[in-house]
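Hi X.,

You mentioned you wanted examples for the new student's onboarding notes, showing what a folding record looks like when two proteins sit in one file. Here is a clean example. The first protein comes first, with its sequence line followed by its structure tokens.
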Amino acid sequence: MNFLKAEWKNLSLFNYEIDAAILEKYLPAGTQIDIWNNKCYVSLVGFMFKNTKVLGLKVPFHTNFEEVNLRFYVKRFENGEWKRGVVFIKEIVPKKAITFIANTLYQENYETQKMRHEIIENKNRNTFIYQWKNNNEWNTIEIETKKDLSKIEMDSEAEFITEHYFGYTKIDEETTFEYEVTHPRWEQIEVLNHRIDVDFEKIYGTDFGFLQTQKPTSIFLAEGSKITVKNKRKIELIPIEEKLYA
């Protein structure tokens, strides 16, 4: 059975190059850091959940809401092929029930904060704003775009960032949760301007404080689509010593 069905809309993706060594302690067992053109990425992503159903049911007042997450990219080799996925450093939402369900059932790193968003539509351009409150201070990511959609090219940086279809959660040094996310290929809208006002160190810790002064390598606005999150699967790695004496 599917765990969750929803629409993910207007995904604002701010992508930063990062030293892969910083991410090693967050890496789930059985996965490897995924890189593109010799670059290791972390992304700050703001988007809307729409028409959300958990286990087939709409939860009152929890169907439409914002999310902002910080994530990085991994891959896992299984049955002769690579699975490409993401690992979340933190996912911020405005609904306590969503945080409780995700943290309890999936052991994700959700956090509840006050949030708000705004879409400003003009004749030739749109502006997408996501905000969340941390320690009584509002953090903001804002993107101004053109109106026209365009395809995300094969083997492009935008494809690498958007086309990951698995989520991985580190439970401990030998146990990982894996879940599959399904959606069609997304289209993007050209970004004209952007604004970032985020206290990275206070929100994500000292490992990511350097993002405060680092410029994004790239910024995308993906239109999004309907998505499905399938039920989790536990992956357990047997230590080499146990294999030897099994």
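Then the second protein repeats the pattern, sequence line and then tokens:
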Amino acid sequence: MSMVDDGTERGNEAVDEPGWEVDPDDESGAAVVAAVGRQIKTWREAAGLRAGELGSMLGYGEDLIYKVEGGSRIPRPEFMDAVDVAVGAGGKLAAMKPDIAEVRYPKKIRELAKLEAAAVELSAYGNHNIHGLLQTEEYARALFGMRRPAFSHDDVERLVAARVARQSIFSRSPAPELSFVQEEVTLRRHLGGRMVWRRQLEHLLEVSELRHVEIQVMPTSRDEHAGMGGEMQVLKFKDGSAVGRSEGDFGSRPVSDPKHLRIIELRCGIIRAQALNPRESRAFIEQVLGET
């Protein structure tokens, strides 16, 4: 038994699968995956290889090669690199990795990631768990792992990968202004166990040091709280437009109508005013970490 780069185990029977299942409701994503699969098949046949032979070369079963070629399986980047070498594509198949990089994530997450990638300002309030952009990989894995009905292991890893990929927003240039307000309970709930929780708190302190990031804590002891309706978020863009979402309002869907946005922005502003300021919040997080 050996471990491959993507963390899956390969046995002698080569039964592990090099990617993720295609979402049948994601028509545009399915079309991209199908096109990539056809290219792989074309290069394999041109190289004079049967599907089983290619599978043996890569350490996968024949059926899995057919799944990728048939567009029912989204190949991982390392699979594309390996098949490119095996069929002598000279980098042409490996060059298709950006085409499948986005579609390997659920459609809703892709749409959110695109909005975040274009935003020049983000304001968010979280009351159940740490905001996705602030989560460590281990925390995110624990969070998805406790969902009910339970996600499959494959789905958990796919969702974790998508969440981690979104965090490239912190290294963008020019940097967007990012503001987060976290409910105190999200800092005290030991999701994933004590070590995962401690690392998450340490990560919040690390991120709070970035000049374009503000993290605030809403203490449970507050007598006034404008966020009792649930989590919310506002994204603003370079052209002056914006998109907001507030749990329980407007169907919990993203809205861009100025009248709806005004309500969400008003609440976000009041929440920031009611929460501890960034310096006080950092001290609060350090205190919670020190209590462990």
